[in-house]
Amino acid sequence: MSLLAISDLHVNHPENRKHVDSLRPASDDDWLLVAGDVADLVPDVEWALALLRERFAEVVWAPGNHELWTVPADPVQARGVERYELLVELCRGLGVHTPEDPYPVWTGSDGQSFAVAPLFLLYDYTFRPDGTTTRDEALDRAREAHVVCTDERFLHPDPYPSRDAWCRARLELTRSRLAEIPPELPTVLVNHYPLVREPTRVLRYPEFALWCGTEQTADWHLTYRARAMVYGHLHIPRTTEHDGVPFHEVSVGYPREWQPRGSGPAQPKRVLA
Predict the structure, then answer these.
(1) What is the C-alpha to C-alpha distance for residues 201 and 209, in angstroms, rounded to an integer?
(2) How far apart are CA 70 and CA 60, in angstroms?
(3) Which helix (H) or strand (E) element contains residue 3?
């Protein structure tokens, strides 16, 4: 029995869709954590999560930015909070855990239990390039470098006035939920973005870090007793350690990224066993 994790499935790409169709658990008791960016279109999100839920004992989903895009090709044109709530209800109908549900408890082979906490936090433009001090200055630097996330076009924050305002609201709500976890339970935190800034230091374009998280979560892995942190978004699959806590970047990414590696798309990462 294992706790496995994967993210950034992007099943709108045929190669990735084929990969997801091939995924199987090693044990009927395996859980799968999905750290966002399943697809851009709601029907594709539903296809992938329904398939995975049929195969794994439990599936836990945290949204990425791509699920929250409202693109012209999507038959579902809901925006912002309405879109997120629609996705939550879709997941509940499939039996998939979401950030709005009670945190499920996973128990390993040694009898140790963990609260598995999927998070939806967004970002607030505080992962700023060196030499910039304000949000606007950092965004101007990104535009000058021609590095601007597509979220600025398709991820609408309605009814919030901005994505960072939505982020602040999500941080406040999530802090209160995490504080309710019994203190004897360690956690596994699952978020589309890393909770600390350090993993973004290796980005080819450092300006893109603006769309990769918030400084407000820098100590959450310690405050909430994390034994592991799972994230995606960066498309740089690897494990790093911060304050003794393993941070697993578990993204599959786009075919143009994983095909040159020659080893095939990323398989689910074993987080705990």
Answers:
(1) 8
(2) 23
(3) strand 3-6
Alpha-carbon radius of gyration of the chain: 18
- The predicted structure's pLDDT at residue 263: 86
| Token pair in block for residue 169 | 């609201």
Number of domain units in the chain: 1
The C-alpha angle with vertex 41 and arms to 188 and 32, in degrees rounded to 5, equals: 25
Q: Which of 4-8, 126-130, 209-213, 216-220 is the least confident region? A: 126-130
Q: Which residue has the tokens 């008791």?
A: 29
Task: Give dist(CA 152, CA 138) in Å, integer.
Answer: 14
Residues paired with residue 58 on neighbouring β-strands, in sequence order: 31
pLDDT score recorded for residue 77: 98
**Is the model's pTM score more than 0.90?**
yes
How many angstroms separate the CA atoms of 81 and 94, rounded? 20
State which residues form the domain around 74: 3-272
Tokens standing for residue 107 = 């128990």
Token pair for 268 = 């689910």
Crossing angle between the packed helical segments 14-22 and 42-55, to the nearest 10 degrees: 20
20-39 pLDDT tens trace: 999 999 999 999 999 999 99
With contact defined as beta carbons under 8 Å apart, do 216 and 126 qualify? yes
CATH classification at residue 260: 3.60.21.10
